Amino acid sequence: MLLLEDTAVDVAEQSDGRFGPDLMDVYEKWEEFSAWAKAAAPGAGRPVSAAQLGTPVPRPRQIFGIGLNYRDHADEANLAHPENIVVFTKFASSLAGPESTAAVSSDSVDYEAELVVVVGREAHRVGVDEAADVIAGYSVGQDISDRGVQMRPPAPQFSLGKSFPGYAPVGPAVVTRDEPADPSALRISCAFTGPTAQAQGADVWTAQDGSTGDMIFSPERIISDLSQVVTLYPGDLIFTGTPAGVGMARGIAVQPGDVMTTTIEGIGSITTEFVAG
């Protein structure tokens, strides 16, 4: 679906089969699709709510996460600002849509609000100055982690601890790279209602409130550095890191009954409701 304000256009129908019906086909023809989408007539769609939307990239070949990529987050973890990108993966079975439910896997589940970059063309060994052309667009993500699994001996299991079902919600849409006024200066926040908020004495508690301007490595630098090793494919997802305020630094863990909303200025909001595992 192509979202136009509060309506959704059936892309396969409106394009006479030129794009779709498989959503992943759009990313294989991203530049062509973008040109067509900009010319799509507003009002040609049907009303749609976030609850009706699934993840906008349902079958990415690869999902990357970048650790310690915000200065204030590295500072709260008492770690030096990295000189090179810190990379992990989230397995595809953890993907979820913009209004989803996730089971709390243990008493050490953490939250991270993230800007997600969606890859729009195949890329290998691209320079930073070329990397912007690799970006299809941006989305909102939540990097949910079971810190107990992530840190258990004998060695950290970042990817496994971050890949329980529903631990990679993304949405509500992919916003094309030219839509945010300045992707390097977007407000990014994460707020809770439920037991965690109540423990802070609030009905709604803001856990994270930062700016993408605090990133150490820009999306272009991340794409360039990743591509020196791997080949990036259309539809790949890159979780670009999180600002300060994560639960591990605060001594807080997500509880059943919590509802977490992550918002990025100019892109949208996604919500995850946590239930008992």
Description:
This protein is of the alpha+beta class and 277 residues long. It is 20% helix and 31% strand. The protein has helices spanning 11-14, 24-28, 30-38, 71-76, 128-131, 147-151, 158-161, 195-199, 219-227, 247-250, and strands at 2-4, 7-9, 46-47, 63-67, 86-89, 95-96, 99-104, 109-110, 113-119, 135-142, 145-146, 168-176, 187-193, 205-211, 237-239, 259-264, 268-276. A hairpin with a 3-residue loop joins strand 16 (259-264) and strand 17 (268-276). The protein is globular. It starts with a strand and ends with a strand. One of its GO terms (molecular function) is hydrolase activity.
In brief, what are we looking at here?
The chain is built from 10 helices and 17 strands.
CATH fold naming: Fumarylacetoacetate hydrolase, domain 2
Approximately how much beta-strand content do the residues carry? 25-35%
The low-confidence runs, each spanning 5 or more residues with pLDDT under 50, are none
Structural domain count? 1
Please, what is the average pLDDT? 94
Order of helices and strands: EEHHHEEHEEEEEHEEHHEEHEHEHEE
CATH top level is Alpha Beta
**Oligomer classification:** single chain
Structural class: alpha+beta
CATH superfamily membership: Fumarylacetoacetase-like, C-terminal domain
Helix content: 10-25%
Distance between the termini: 32 Å
Sheet having the most strands: 7 strands, mixed
Major sheet: order of its strands?
A: 5-4-15-9-10-12-6
Domain Fumarylacetoacetase-like C-terminal: 63-274
Protein name: Fumarylacetoacetate hydrolase family protein
GO molecular function: hydrolase activity; metal ion binding
Keywords: Hydrolase, Metal-binding
